[in-house]
Amino acid sequence: MRPPIASLVVLLLVVAALTVIGLDGIHAERVPQAVLNGEQQIAADTAQSVRTSIDAEASAVRRTAGAYPATSTSTPATALKALTSARKAVLGSALLEPHTGKLLAAGGKPAPLAGVDVAKAASGHGAIPPRLVTSGGTRQLLYFAEVTLPAQQEDANQDQNQVPSRTARQWLLVVAEALPTLTTYGDGRTAEVLDAKGTALATTTRGTAAPAAADSTLPATAARAASGSDRDTDASGSLLGADSGNRRTVAGWAQVASATGPGDTDKLGLVVLTSRAVPATTAAADYSGFALQAAGALAGLALLLALALHFLVQRPLLRLYLSAGRLARGATEDGPTAWEELSRPVPVHGFGELARIGRALESLRRQLLGESGPQEFPARRGPGYRALAVAGVLVVACWAVPMIFLLNRADTATAVPAPVLANQQARTEIATNRIRQSLDQSYTDLNEAAASLPGRDRAAQTEVLRHALADHKQYRSLYLLDRSGDITMRVGDTPLRTLVHVPEGGGITTVNTSGRIPAIAAYAQVRAAKGKAPAAGVVLFGEIDVKALNSILARPKLGSVWVTDSDNKVLAASVGYRAFQSLPESGMTRLARATQGAAGTAGSATSAVDRASSGPSVDAAAPLAQSGPTARLGWHVVTAEPAAALQLPAVQAEQRTMLAGILGLTLGAACLGWLHVVVIRPLRAVAVLVERLAGGDRRTVLHPVNHDEIGSVTRGLELMRQALAERDRAARSGHAAGASRSLRENTLQR
User: Fold this and answer.
1) Is 560 in contact with 640 (CB distance < 8 Å)?
2) Span 13-70, pLDDT tens digits
3) Nearest in space to 337 (alpha carbons), one of 345, 346, 328
4) What is the distance between the alpha carbons of residues 138 and 160, in angstroms, rounded to a whole number?
5) Is 286 helix (H, G, I), strand (E, B) or coil?
6) 3-state SS of 398-409?
7) Contact between residue 201 and residue 187 where contact means Cβ atoms under 8 Å apart
8) Distance (Å, rounded) from C-alpha 35 to C-alpha 426?
9) Helix 649-675 crosses helix 2-24 at what angle (to 10 degrees)?
10) Which domains, ranges and CATH numbers included, belong to the chain?
C-alpha cells in the first residue's frame, strides 16, 4: 500500500523539478540558434556541392584517359589534343613522362607544375588526387590521370635473334582548371572558398550583401576552426560576426572533404564560408516565472493526493488490518483472552470497500460471540475506491491537460523568424540544384554512350552499353529502341517502362505513370554516322535507379524532401513513400503550385510555415530547373522540416511544456493504476468474500493472494470462517443429540 502512494508523490515532485529545469533554461538570444544552425547547414550543403563538382571532374578526366583508344603509334601531341578538345573548362594541359616528369606535350596555357613532384605523385597506388596550385596569382586545380599506350620496343642490348619484348608505356595527363563555380542562394548571402590559411580563392554574392556581412575576421576564424577539426570528415560550424544597428552577421563554415572515407578533396584543405546579415531579435523570452508556478501547482497537487490517500485509504486499511487480526486471534483462542479480543466492536472507517469490510467484520464478531446469526447485506452500494483512483487521475489531468494543449502554445505566424524561412528556402534551392546536376550528368553520360554506338557491330555496341552501365552506377538499365518503340538491345535490369514512345531529341522523362517504382530515364538520339554501320536502335534510354536519386535528397536538418512531377505526384523522396502519390499535406501542394509562376516562366522558390496535422513545419518548394534537359518537365522539389526540430525559444517552450504535462499525466496515472491493482482491486474482492461469510457462507475457502495488509486480512477471515464452521457443526451435532434423547424418552413413556 505504501509504495504506490510514495511513488506517486516522489514522481510528481520530480516532474515539477524537471519543469523548472527545462523551462528555466530557455532564453531568447539576439540571433536564435536555429538561424545559426541553418547557416551552418547551408555552408555544409555548399561545400558538398563543391566537393561533388571536384570529384565529378576528377572522375571525368580519369574516365576520358582510360577510354582513350591509344595505339603504339600514338604521339603525345595527338593524344593530348584528343583528350582535352572536348573539355571546355580546361585552362591548360600537359602530357608528362611519369617517372622523370619530362614534358612530352602541352596545350592551352602552361600548366602550373612548379612545386609538384610528378614522379612521387605518379608512384602512389590508385588514383592521383587533385592538387591546388598557384598560377599568375590565381589558384587552380590540377587533375591527374594515367594514359596507357601499348608499345613494342626492341631493347638495344638484346640479341637480334631474340623476340622483341612487348611492354606498355604510360603517360601522365595533367589538366589545369579553375575552381568550380560557386553558386550562392538566398538574397544578401555571400559565399567564399578559402584555403587552409583563410585566403579567399573565390567569392560570390547573391543580391546586395549588407555592410554587416563584410566582416574581415570571419575567414581567418573559419579557417582556424576547420584546421582544428578532423580533416577526414565534413566538419562544419557556425560563427557570429559584427553588429550593424539592428542586424547581426551570421556565418557558417564547412570543410570540402569526404565524409565517407578518403576522397579527392581531402588534401586540398578547402573551406566554404557563407555569411549573411540577419535582423537581431529584441523580444525577450523568460519562462522561469511560468515554470515556478507550474511546478508549485504540481507539487501542491502531489501533496493533496498524498494526504487524501493517506487519510482515506492508508490509515483506514491499517485499522482494518489490526481489527481483522484481533478477531482472528479471538476466534482461535479460548478463555478470557478470546473474550477480550472479541468484546471490542470493529470501528467502521472510510467509505466504499473498507466500510463494507468493516461492517461485515462487526457482524462476524457478533456471530463469534453468539449474539446474532448471519446477516444479509444490500446489493446496492455507493461509490468505492475505484472512483477515488479515477478522481486522482482527473486531479492530475487538471494540471497536465492545459500543459499539453493550452499553455505556452507557439504562434506559427511569429514563432519562426524570417531568416529561418529564408534558410529553408535556400537549402531547398541547393537540394534542387544538386538533383538537377545529377540528372543533367546522367543525360550527358548517356549522350557519350549514344555517340559511341554508330559504326560498331552488335557485339561491340553491347559491350559499350555494359561498360557505360558499369561506369555509371546511377543507371539500372540501358536499352535501345527502334522506330516502333520495341527494345532491340538491353543490358542491366528489366525495364520498368510502360509508356511505349520514341521521343525526338534528348532529355529526361518518365517512362511509366503507375506502379510501385517510378521510372525516370534519360534518353538520347543515336545518330547514324555517314559511311558507317547503323546502330541497333534510334533512341538510347537509360533508366535511373530511383534509389540513387533518393540517396542524394537527404541532408541533415533539412527534413523530408520530395521530387514531384508537374501534377504534384511524388517521383522520389528521402523518406518512405508510394510512387505517384500526392504530397502528405495540402499546404505542401499549394506551395509547389506557387512556384510555377506565370505561364511560360520557370517560376521561383518560395517558403511558408504550415500548420500540418502532425504539427507546424517550415516548408519550401523550388522548381527543378530553369534550363537544360529537365527544364520543360515542370518538376518541383519540396522540403518540410518540423518546427519541433528547430531550436527556437517559443517552440522549445511549447515542447517542454507538453513534455512536462505528458510526463505528469503518465506517471500519475501509472501510480494510481498501480494502487488500483495492488490495493483497490483486492479490496473489492475481499469485500465480496467477507459479506458472503457474514451472510452465512461457510463453504468458500478464503485463500490469501498477496503478502501484504490485504493478504493478512484474508488470512484472518479464513480463521474466522473455520471457527464459525466448527461452531456450526458443533451446534448441529448438539441439536441432533438432543433430538435423539427426546425421542427415546417419549418412547419409554409410551
Assistant:
1) yes
2) 999 999 999 998 887 778 888 999 999 999 999 999 999 889 888 988 888 888 888 7
3) 328
4) 54
5) strand
6) HHHHHHHHCCCC
7) no
8) 12
9) 180
10) 1-28+291-410+650-750 (no CATH), 52-155+164-178 (3.30.450), 183-279 (3.30.450), 426-647 (3.30.450.20)
